Amino acid sequence: MPFNALLSEKKNHLTATQQRTMKYIMENHEDAVFLTASSLSRRIGVSEATIVRLAQALGFDGFRGMQRMLRKNFQNWLSTDARLEQTVKHARTDEDILAKVLQEDIRNLAQTLESLSIETFHQAVAEMAAARKIFVVGLKGSHSTAIVLARYLSFLREGICLLKPGHGDLWDSLHEVGKKDLVVGISFPRYTRLTVEALAYANAQGAKVGAITDSLFSPLADHAHWVLPVRHQLDSFIESYTAVMSLINALLTALSIRNPPETLKALKKRETLWKGKNIYWTVSKERGRN
To answer: Whole domain around residue 243: which residue ranges?
Structure first.
């Protein structure tokens, strides 16, 4: 089972001390994956027994077993230049790279499906349907996915706001968020600070907060009412957003069929506008007869 799936399954069964320990490990992975249990316990300020019991609570025989799985995830957390160096070491031909990348994305999709909670997915769709206004924030590489989510949400309902990067723009848009609103944040390692701050602010204002991220121990999860963990591993200098986009497609589709008459009405209105403005290229009748 993927490590994120373990966290999703076991997190609620961990003690407060174990959760704090796991949070430290996820936030300081570059050191944690190589430290001994005793050294790690001193860093965190807990007993070595706590480290061992945490590993056992997650289903491992001991800390070393958990550490081996953490090391397998280490590739996800490398900086972009370090990840490119790793890719160059293993690259052989363009054909090898093509097959490897597509196979990794297939695994990303399969393991994301395995780790997602259907109850949490239901909650996300329900809150998207009920919110007065939905704010979507995703910066850096995640901004493209935020654009897609916000754009197609606007096809289905009113009150959609894409929080854009730029000096002051994000906070100007978010300052009116309230208890009837929903803020959805998208970010992956290395997490963007502003995305985390936006979710923290929305939570403090009493708004509903959702996170699409890599883990229940992501810093976004600290401020979210629901978390949809997505696997994004890719042996390259970039992250893979294939599974993220697939999840967004699922959210949009599920939302669209909650109220089919309203969805059809909204889409027909847009189609009429597009047709009237001649938005899309079409083959003319004259050309079709030739």
So the answer is: 115-274
**What are the CA-CA distances from residue 175 to residues 134, 136, 169, 184, 211 (Å)?**
13, 14, 10, 15, 19
CATH number at residue 47: 1.10.10.10
Rounded to 5 degrees, φ, ψ at 139 are: -120, 170
Helix or strand holding residue 161 (H, E): strand 160-163
CA dist 27 → 51, 118, 185 (Å): 16, 27, 18
CATH number of the domain to which 221 belongs? 3.40.50.10490
Per residue in 161-202, pLDDT (tens digit) is: 999 877 568 898 999 899 999 999 999 988 999 999 999 999
Q: Which H or E run includes 243?
A: helix 242-256
Do residues 186 and 244 touch, judged by C-beta distance below 8 A? yes
Q: What is the pLDDT of residue 167?
A: 58
Cα separations (Å) of 284 from 11, 274, 275, 281, 288? 59, 16, 14, 9, 6
Residue 103's region, left for phi above 0, alpha for psi from -120 to 50, else beta, is: alpha
**Residue 6: closest CA among 73, 40, 57, 44:** 57
Do 122 and 259 lie in one domain? The reply is: yes
Number of domains forming the structure of the chain: 2
Q: Give the whole-number percent of the chain exceeding pLDDT 90.
A: 42
> Do both 257 and 153 map to the same domain?
yes
This prediction's pTM = 0.70
Sign of the CA dihedral running 38, 42, 44, 47: positive
Judgement on whether residues 191 and 263 belong to the same structural domain of the protein: yes
Q: Which two tokens stand for residue 26?
A: 């996820």
